[in-house]
Design brief:
By secondary structure, the chain is of the alpha/beta class. Helices cover 17% and strands 30% of the residues. It folds into two domains: 133 residues, no CATH class; 38 residues, no CATH class. It is elongated. A six-stranded mixed beta sheet has the order 1-2-3-4-5-6. It starts with a strand and ends with a helix. The longest helix is centred in the last third of the chain and has 12 residues.
Length: 183
Amino acid sequence: MERIKAIDEIRIIPEFIGEAGMEREVRIDPEVMTATLANEDLQVTSPFTIHYEVTRHLETLHVRVEVKGEVSTLCARCLSPMTHTVDLHLESDYMPAPPEVSAQVEAERLSAETGYFRNAILLGEYIISELVLSLPFIYLCTEQCRGLCAGCGANLNTGQCTCQANDDPRFQVLSEFKNKLRR
């Protein structure tokens, strides 16, 4: 397994891909992945692995990528430490770039399934963009996470809160109405 210092180093030179294709597996150290994700709330504690296969059909290159790893963070509701498993599967076809496509061929990508190349395929850029887009916006330890008590801050997943409910006098009329409806 090859070790790389940055995901940006993953490049494919199309002219060196024959009919047999190519297959590689690379390992990325936790510090490199943490810097790549550029999110202070996420920590990578173990290496990520990226496995990719390239096959050729005439001028089109088909690329399959698997990204595996784990990120550590805090649950957005209860603030407990948690681990999110990354298991990302990508597939994309790359075709020679037409002359009207700008030098930023990855920016000209019409979809996640189709890209263009000139002299090289910047596979690392594609992996980074898809990896960041695949991460959840909000991390939850479980879907049923009850979060923290707004009054005392107790973790409601581990037990009941000990704070006394202070009823707001402005809601007393609504409370009485609610009690009448229960009868």
